[in-house]
Each structure stands twice: as structure tokens, then as C-alpha cells.
Amino acid sequence: IFALLCLSSGLVSSSGDRAKDNGDIFIISYDSFDGDVDDISTTTVSSRAANYVDFDEVLRECNSSFITPMSHVLQFNTTGKLLDEKDLTSKCYFRCFFEKAGILDNFKLNGDLVRKYMWPATGDSIEYCEGQGKNETNACIRAYTITQCAMMRALTDARNKPMV
Ligand SMILES: *[C@@H]1O[C@H](CO)[C@@H](O)[C@H](O)[C@H]1NC(C)=O
Ligand SMILES: *[C@@H]1O[C@H](CO)[C@@H](O)[C@H](O)[C@H]1NC(C)=O
Ligand SMILES: *[C@@H]1O[C@H](CO)[C@@H](O)[C@H](O)[C@H]1NC(C)=O
């Protein structure tokens, strides 16, 4: 995901018109955003081929609500961590990113997409990661905790390409 994600950031301007063509996408501007990601549509996979995820679009939309430096994204890509583990904006960015990509839905990982874009997850690793942050009441922190777990697994096991 992140390889795609990073490569694609250069193309953001060229994809600027795409949202207009996709009726189920809307963007809440940063200024008016109240912090509730549930207000943002999470169905982007729909009209394309099954399991196809437009990471360009996901990155652009999530970064418009939760402005996160590319360096944070790169760091997460290579270490599975944030420099500042209290950085809630970045956590909300990753929550948005993984939810819009369809990889995470209501704190459940989509096994097919995880295996396609992250790593060839086997055994109970998906269930294990979903259980992380279970007691966390902040949705961004909880979602981040789950995706961080998945990312750490991807980094320590063989990572599928293309990935974050
Ligand atoms: C992200 O990680 C993947 C897999 O290790 C790597 O191929 C890719 O180059 C990384 N992306 C960046 C921009 O560092
Ligand atoms: C998000 O947007 C800011 C400001 O436009 C930009 O500097 C930053 O690189 C973007 N982050 C990502 C991950 O694309
Ligand atoms: C979550 O809460 C349950 C019940 O209060 C507790 O048993 C469990 O240890 C907690 N898990 C974590 C990871 O803190």
C-alpha cells in the first residue's frame, strides 16, 4: 500500500477531478471537520473491479481531512510507528486511510485485502491484531492500534508487494 501511496502522491493533482465522478465520495473540509470519521463515506471500492483500491484517491481524501506529513507516512511504512505516538491527527489519517481502502471496517480487518496489499497473513494473526486496542474508546487510536499491529506483522513476516 505505501509504495503505491507514496509514488502516487505526485499524481494527486491529476486525479483531482475523480471525486466528482464518484457519487459515493464526499470530502469534509478540514476546517469544518468535527473529528468523526464516520461522517466520511467509507465505500470507495464499489464500482471498480473487486478488491481494486484506488490508493491515490484514498490518500488525497484522507490527507484533506487529516493533514499528515509524508514523512510520517514513510516512517510508518518502514517502521510501523509514528515518531510521536501521541499524534492523534496522524492516527486519524491512518484510520481514514485503512478504512477508505476497505482494509479495516468497524475494527475488523478484511483478510483478502490484507493478504493482497499487506502481507500473506496466516493463522490467527488477523484476529490477534483486531483484538489490539479493544479497550480503547477513541476510534482513531483503536483503529491505528489495529493497523499498526498489521503493519508490524507485514514488516516482520514477508511483506506482499505492492505495499505501504
Ligand atoms: C514502502 O515499503 C515498501 C515495502 O518495503 C517499499 O517497497 C517501498 O519502497 C516503501 N516506500 C517508500 C516510499 O519508502
Ligand atoms: C498532505 O498535504 C500536505 C499539505 O498539502 C502535504 O504537505 C503533505 O505532503 C500531504 N501528505 C501526504 C501523505 O500526501
Ligand atoms: C481490556 O479490558 C478487559 C476487561 O476489563 C481486561 O480483562 C483486559 O485485560 C483489557 N485488555 C487490555 C489489552 O488492556
Automatic annotation (TrEMBL):
It comes from the Eukaryota. Keywords: Signal. Residues 1-16 form the signal peptide. It holds the Pfam family PBP_GOBP. SMART domains: PhBP (SM00708). InterPro entries: PBP/GOBP (IPR006170), PBP_GOBP_sf (IPR036728). The keyword Lipoprotein does not apply. CDD domains: PBP_GOBP. One of its GO terms (molecular function) is odorant binding. This is Pbprp4. It comes from Drosophila busckii. The lineage of its organism: Eukaryota, Metazoa, Ecdysozoa, Arthropoda, Hexapoda.
